[in-house]
Specification:
By secondary structure, this protein is of the alpha/beta class. The radius of gyration is 23 Å and the shape is globular. It starts with a helix and ends with a helix. One of its GO terms (cellular component) is cell outer membrane. It holds the Pfam family Acid_phosphat_B.
Length: about 260
């Protein structure tokens, strides 16, 4: 009898605790770092993700065919592609960080890239092989760092990507702004199209301080699916940066600010 009374008291205490604890706080307390588990699972498991990636590269193939008819200035032709979440899938790294309860550690990222085991983004390899068959070279313009150069080449070569060599891989040196590297390619090549998962993979007019990203996209909407081929990436990106205000924010602070930014009714 006394044992039953103790169990009943314990149950009532837990119930009172749950009722008195704010639901938002409870959700936040139970949410892992970045609370992007669904985003990573969507990329890893959903047919919709694969379909969108194939769709992007199907548009790229059609656009490349059309662009080849228009170029006749004597320069060789090329496409510029980003690497991460554009041709290589890093969702296992994101899953690793979530399971550790953290957002991002540079040493973890460098360990992951050094393995050179990232798989392809669906459709990427087939499209770039098609481009190569049309004598269109590929330049890989990435914000991976110089210390990751050799492993990145190894990963691309292992998967059979064309032009995976020193002449076609441009990593970050002093700035994450890719415009100077794109201009370097433009000096000698016709850039027929660009592929990326981030708007800044196309032009540095996006995400400049004070700019409205949606307005910038609307202004060049005719280029998407034609000159700019955008791959889906729900896991991370420049889009997340404007969500936060303040410095040295904890994961809890960021989670709260994300929650506050949600539209509701």
């Amino acid at each position: 009898m006394q044992l039953c009374r103790m169990k009943r008291c314990t149950f009532i205490w837990i119930l009172l605790l749950l009722v008195s604890f704010p639901i938002a706080s409870l959700a936040q307390a139970l949410t892992p770092a970045r609370d992007f588990t669904n985003a990573v699972l969507w990329q890893q498991t959903s047919g919709e993700y694969r379909a969108l990636a194939f769709q992007a590269y199907n548009f790229a193939r059609l656009s490349l065919k059309e662009a080849l008819w228009e170029q006749a200035n004597g320069k060789p032709n090329c496409v510029i592609v980003d690497v991460d979440e554009t041709v290589l899938d890093n969702s296992p790294f994101q899953g690793h960080e979530i399971k550790k309860g953290i957002s991002f550690l540079p040493e973890d990222w460098h360990k992951w890239t050094s393995l050179a085991t990232a798989d392809t983004v669906p459709g990427a390899l087939a499209f770039l092989k098609f481009a190569a068959s049309k004598k269109v070279e590929t330049f890989y313009v990435t914000n991976r760092e110089e210390v990751e150069y050799t492993a990145t080449l190894k990963n691309l070569q292992r998967l059979g990507f064309p032009n995976a060599d020193d002449a076609h891989l441009l990593v970050k040196t002093t700035t994450s702004d890719k415009e100077a590297r794109r201009q370097k390619v433009l000096e000698k090549y016709n850039v027929l199209l660009l592929c990326g998962d981030n708007l800044s993979d196309f032009s540095n007019v996006f995400y400049r301080e004070g700019k409205n990203t949606k307005e910038q996209v609307d202004a060049v909407q005719h280029l998407f699916g034609v000159k700019f081929i955008l791959l889906p990436n729900p896991m991370y990106g420049d889009w997340e940066k404007p969500l936060y205000s303040g410095e040295k924010l904890s994961e809890g602070d960021k989670a709260k600010q994300r929650l506050d930014r949600l539209k509701s009714y």
